[in-house]
Please model this.
Amino acid sequence: MSKDDVGNKSGTIWLLLSDKGKLSIREIGEFTNCKDSLIFLALGWLLREDKVRIIDMNGVLHVELKKCVSELYY
Model:
């Protein structure tokens, strides 16, 4: 697995979250057919870029996109 693989999967997950909204880690896996390790690496990438937030809902991790500034004011 290369840095490019993780970056590409980050983009795939970002687009998925943009389309579907908040998803659990399991749902991301079901939609992408990716191994958990690649999902977690891609989410780490998106977290580092401050693009997503992780929410613990009764022990189940959910991921959602952060709102961009323009969405907050318009």
